[in-house]
Amino acid sequence: MNAQQTPSAVTLPRAESSPGGKRSRLSSSTAAKLALIPATIITVVCFYVFVGWTIVISMTKSRLLPVYNFVGFDQYRRLFANDRWWTAMENLAIHGTLFIVGCTVIGYVLAILLDRGTRCESLFRTVFMLPLSMSFIVTGAIWQWLLNPTLGIQDAVRDLGWTDFVFNWIVRPDRAIYTLAFAGVWQQVGLCMALFLAGLRGIDPNIWKATRVDGIPTWRVYANIITPMLRPVFFSVFVLLSALVLKSFDLVVALTGGGPGFASDLPARFVVDHILNRQELGLGAAGAFMMLCTIAAVVSPYIYYELRTSRKEA
């Protein structure tokens, strides 16, 4: 036997896919599906089942308690003949437009300013995000005090010497609905700012380098390049704010109570008031279903447009 023998390389057997590996992957997929079952059941029961139950109740004569003597669309006829309902829907359109546009525009502008490298960025982020930590009840109470003609902004300005200054929107039927938009924007603009800032920080820095080389003005870069790239962020902001507008109840109760009269009433307060206070369960259920139809009519075309655009880009 040769004493100096070159050691041969040890050849390891090639790893082959085994049925066990497939079973492992299959079991992982099955485990993920099983983990989703409780959440799926809760979603189906708490949303779809109760939506169906609401539709059924809206077609009955239910008042204090549910009764199943069907009357067809009588409750919807009563609803559409109710002047308070149409006032609430008109207020919803005003409040929703001002709230969504205000939060989106101001939040985007603040995000751009912070993205430009503002000093003390963490301080500004904290200041703008702080109102978000409050509930709508607290926000309504704060703004009710600020807008009170005898205690808030009007009284403070008059104490400074401007005795003719008037800012009594909260007690004016033609202006009360705008105070809801002020308070809502003040609370939610920080959320929009954070979402837009996250989107801006995800933009490829090479885009900015290329635009500087080409000498494109900064405002034009944001308008023609950056803003279209943030379309998914705008979509998320729109959906979130639309949901907040539709279910606005606690802010109305805390700030204006729906008044003066029903000048700042919203559909959510109309539904809750008729179900809990007026013992009109059937009419309230009809209003709740019409609220769902309203948000579907507003959001569905935007969702369809986004999905169609995404498929074309893919």
Automatic annotation (TrEMBL):
The keyword Cell membrane applies. It is a multi-pass membrane protein. The chain crosses the membrane at residues 34-56, 92-114, 126-146, 176-200, 221-246, 281-305. Its main location: membrane. It is found in: Cell membrane. It comes from the Bacteria. Keywords: Cell membrane, Membrane, Transmembrane, Transmembrane helix, Transport. It holds the Pfam family BPD_transp_1. Residues 1-25 are annotated as: Disordered. Residues 89-304 form the ABC transmembrane type-1 domain. InterPro entries: ABC_transporter_permease, MetI-like, MetI-like_sf. Gene3D superfamilies: MetI-like. Belongs to the binding-protein-dependent transport system permease family. This is Sugar ABC transporter permease. It comes from Archangium minus.
